[in-house]
Amino acid sequence: MNQFLSNYRAFLKESAKSDRYHGFDIRGLIRVEPFLSFLFHDWWRVDINGLEKLPSDSGALIVGNSGSFLPWPAFMLLYGLMSARLNPRRVHIAFDMDWIADERLHSLLRELGFIQYTADNVKTLLNRGELVAVFPEGAAGLARPFTWRERLIEFDWVKLMPAIETKTPIFPLATLGCDESVPVFGNLDGLAKFLKLPVFPVTPFFPWLPFPFNLASLPSKWNMSILKPLDYEEPQDRDGLEETAMKQSQFAEGEIQAELNRLLRQRWRNGNKSQSESEII
Amino acid sequence: MPWKIRPNLEKADPAKTFAQRKPEFVARYKDDQDPFDYSIDTFARSEPFFKFFYEEYFRVQMEGIENIPDEGAAIIVGNHSGVIPVDGAMMAIALLNKPVPRRIRYLVTDWFFTLPGVKDWIAQTGQVRASRQNARILLDRGELVGIYPEGVKGIGKPFRERYRLMDFNPGFVKLALEKQCPIVIVSTLGGDEIYPELYNMKPLARLLKMPFFPITPAFPWLPFPLFMTPMPVAWRVIVHEPLYLPYGPEMAKDSKLVLQIARDVQYTIQRDLNRMLRERKSLF
Known about the structure:
The complex is a heterodimer. By secondary structure, chain A is α/β, with parallel strands linked by helices. Chain A has helices at about 1-5, 10-15, 25-45, 70-80, 105-110, 120-125, 160-165, 180, 190-195, 210-215, 240-270, 275-280, and strands spanning about 45-50, 60-65, 90-95, 115, 130-135, 170-175, 185, 200, 225. The longest helix of chain B has 25 residues, at about 255-280. Chain B is an alpha/beta fold. The mean pLDDT of chain B is about 85. Chain B has twelve helices and nine strands. Helix content of chain B is about 40%, strand content about 10%. Chain B has helices at about 5-10, 15-20, 25-30, 40-55, 85-95, 115-125, 130-140, 150-155, 170-180, 200-205, 225, 255-280, and strands at about 60-65, 75-80, 105-110, 130, 145, 185-190, 200, 215, 235-240. Chain B has one domain: 3-Layer(aba) Sandwich (Glycerol-3-phosphate (1)-acyltransferase), CATH 3.40.1130. The chains are: A alpha/beta, B alpha/beta. The interface between A and B is medium-sized, with 18 and 20 residues.
């Protein structure tokens, strides 16, 4: 506990400014922090850059590509922002959590900062100057087959509308490596419907191994980069709003895909070195 | 002798049969004084070969070809694919089969114009040395100008980078703004799989002054015509509606706007490719 307090003093100071609306609770974060830290530093060696582009105290929306099988990129973003040297911040991840039947899991996620996606929730948070992340690929991104890895599924443009309505900046976030960490072979749609899950991906681990092991993943190297904010004009009316949202979501999708292509090319051509290393050599 | 085939071949004049099959096309371009050595006879001679590839071999599924304007200048922009750029030839055949047939003039990198056998053929079938000046001349003459803004790097992509676009060179947007002509976006699926390039031997390419030196399952190993045999992948091409830019010619100097439009075009093609890949059931 004390260790946690001293490690994340700046982060705590920042998040103490706002009260615990939307279920955010620091105790949940303290419980999972060692696990996230292990994943971030040792298992996936996440290389996160572009954090300095985010505003230090005003609201912003982060739009990212979701990883396959479990929303790990959301957790890594959460941890990366929380442990940032400069300007640590707390992020709310807005996604569809209605289907989670387990009370304990639901409340744990809420304590970490996950919220149910509704336009009102997102607008409230943005107006209060909070960071909100959305993953507009939705559940389809979680069952992305391995052959389509690092290729985006069409974005749900509706998820960008609250940000455009409140005129907050939108930052695309590209995550490379999450699709390789859990190869998904297929999606059992019928079984998913029967179990009331959004998707039922089949991985080398998932339905086969006993409980904690079926959530396992491979230690692939991750790169996350926050890109420069989208540049849009304020729409005048409802039609203009929808058009802007659609256009900006397509542009964000393109930006993320182009960044993934760039990172992949760099990785394949220079080996697994990071950018700074390859520059030195 | 029963196997005397040569005289029979001479009897069939490809230019004449072509004129019978495509009278509108020949009438349109017969008396054309072209500054870039376009020759309708050479085109007629190579057309059956590419027609076979279009119809039988790649079974190109063309969507929205009617979106290409019948008259006037336009810039056709697409993703470059294949180690040998046959995507341009497929587009030329598709345009020939339209109700109002047209020809397309592709801007081609200088390297192809240094090859002894290919040089003349490439110019005579309608390709032009890539330069801003040549493109301006063509657009002033009201031609369709085809540009692959990825450049030659786009076709030298290794197999595992298939359908991952390189960043577009924004020169084509500048041209479109200067000449106030529409941009037509074309996304091609299938081209990146016809020659699976396993490796690009850069030192050898530099030595031979080639843009890239691909190693494919066939390329340096098999004798001449065999190494050029592509895989019979089914192609799918989507042609978008023409994009009329709502800016005046003076905006061509605004590099931020130009880059923004170029990125927009690139992302449209990339999204199309992702969607088509997802919808594709089988490679062949």
